[in-house]
Amino acid sequence: MTSAELFNQIKAKKSFLCIGLDTDIQKIPRQLLDTTDPIFAFNKEIIDATHDLAVAYKPNLAFYESLGVNGWNSLEKTVNYIRYNYPDLFIIADAKRGDIGNTSNLYARAFFDAMDFDAVTVAPYMGEDSVTPFFTYVGKWVILLALTSNKGADDFQYMTENNEKLFERVIKTSAKWGNEDNMMYVVGATRAEMLADIRKIIPNHFLLVPGVGAQGGSLEEVAKNGLNKQCGLLVNSSRQIIYAGKDEKFAEKAREAALEVRDEMAGLLEKYL
Amino acid sequence: MTSAELFNQIKAKKSFLCIGLDTDIQKIPRQLLDTTDPIFAFNKEIIDATHDLAVAYKPNLAFYESLGVNGWNSLEKTVNYIRYNYPDLFIIADAKRGDIGNTSNLYARAFFDAMDFDAVTVAPYMGEDSVTPFFTYVGKWVILLALTSNKGADDFQYMTENNEKLFERVIKTSAKWGNEDNMMYVVGATRAEMLADIRKIIPNHFLLVPGVGAQGGSLEEVAKNGLNKQCGLLVNSSRQIIYAGKDEKFAEKAREAALEVRDEMAGLLEKYL
């Protein structure tokens, strides 16, 4: 998918919402536990209930890996289900991978070939040859960690040399490895004040923004500082939407929660774009 | 496993060899392709042929994930096989994970609970709360990326503030999060000249050293600069050992290659310890 195609989706849906499928077997409604694949059953209902309000879904791999082979199976089924039923949606593997070149090649194969994800999140610590193998798949994306939403972001990401912070160097350096049609950046919503600075470095790239909702970031602040002329934002919400309800009406409740975010996004697109 | 128990293994076997199970379906002998699980069949023969010469095995997750559910299944079988047949061996998930706290918790569950790995490699970019959840499993280890063996290591790992490089800050800061019985560091053999400096910061921690062999690092240099009084080194070799032979005698050839490394290690332990 190109950035123009993604922007078309955003305009059509008046939404730049990414729904995080952080599906935890301990948090899904009890009645699903009797099905053969409770994780997939939950995801399917959430997706069916919200697909017209979101432009992207983002399963975080940890939730699936923690269940071993069964979890990996649920993940594959989820990706296939979205691709088959709602082919325009953008699917992100939140995997935070990254290894030496010949190994990153295999991660690319895992997410872009064995599964049909559109994008994978990658950690920048190992540098260029850990990132560029993903670009051999045309139309696919790397979403590189830049400034994350967690407390630990302060440990290393603000390290400074020649007036340049580590996350700024990551962005400046890596922007040369790819382009605006195969590279996005993770910038946490809890750091919304930094978005304006980051926009000066990369005015045109898409940013994936986690941390709105459960982690405390403000959507208005993110939009004000982060929107560009192609929207340029995917804002993720996970727990706030998928666990909005706890009983058999969980999908309906998820839709209500997603609708609320979508309506706010529609207003922000009108206001700032 | 404690560091003392690991050292006992090293003394008993006169070896600090870790064998990387980077098992690639495109590189294993053709006759294995007729078995129900060629990846596991290959690993099993390699392990049976080398278990008395190595103290650790390290499957790199990318190789398994690239095969989807089947790959994950081969991985689980491999870990179970080692644990059941050779319980003293140290098993490392070379996964380079790392995410916000509640998500790293799930990665810990994936590798230490759903599977019985002893250690997992972790990327440091997201800081403390991406690392410490792994410590809730007593006897298990984090192996944190410090200075990697690839070319891309130069992109960010040498960034300097107040005379301290990023990889040094990673080591100094993170050494306070854990201790010498739950934390190791990855230091590439292609950077052997840095090992002596790193030993000044963390004299007692174990280091996992990739890059000897196919990537060009020298074992003698690594030993001279990296050995401490508890050995303190696990040196990994993957392709050089597991693909030493290409036909039906591949396991025998792998044993010969491992024996050569082990004999060199026995000499180095005698010389420097």
Question: Largest interface: which pair?
Answer: A-B, 56 and 56 residues
Strand order in the sheet with the most strands of chain A: 1-2-3-4-5-8-9-10
Q: Which band does the percent of strand residues of chain A land in? A: 15-25%
Biggest β-sheet strands, sense, barrel of chain A: 8 strands, parallel, barrel
Q: Summarize this, please?
A:
Two copies of one chain form a homodimer. The first copy, chain A, is α/β, with parallel strands linked by helices.
Explain this structure to me?
The structure is a homodimer of 273-residue chains. The mean pLDDT of chain A is 96. With 273 residues, chain A is α/β, with parallel strands linked by helices. Chain A has a single domain, classed as TIM Barrel, CATH 3.20.20. Chain A is 45% helix and 17% strand. An 8-stranded parallel β-barrel of chain A has the order 1-2-3-4-5-8-9-10, surrounded by 5 helices. Chain A has 12 helices and 10 strands. Chains A and B meet through helix 3, helix 4, strand 3, helix 5 and helix 6 of A and helix 3, helix 4, strand 3, helix 5 and helix 6 of B.
Task: Give the arrangement of secondary structure elements.
The structure is a homodimer of 273-residue chains.
Chain A: H1 3-13, E1 17-21, H2 38-50, E2 56-59, H3 61-65, H4 68-85, E3 90-97, H5 101-114, E4 119-122, H6 128-131, E5 141-147, H7 153-156, E6 160-161, E7 164-165, H8 166-175, E8 183-187, H9 192-201, E9 206-209, H10 219-226, E10 233-237, H11 239-242, H12 250-272
Parallel strand pairs in A: 1-2, 1-10, 2-3, 3-4, 4-5, 5-8, 8-9, 9-10
Antiparallel strand pairs in A: 6-7
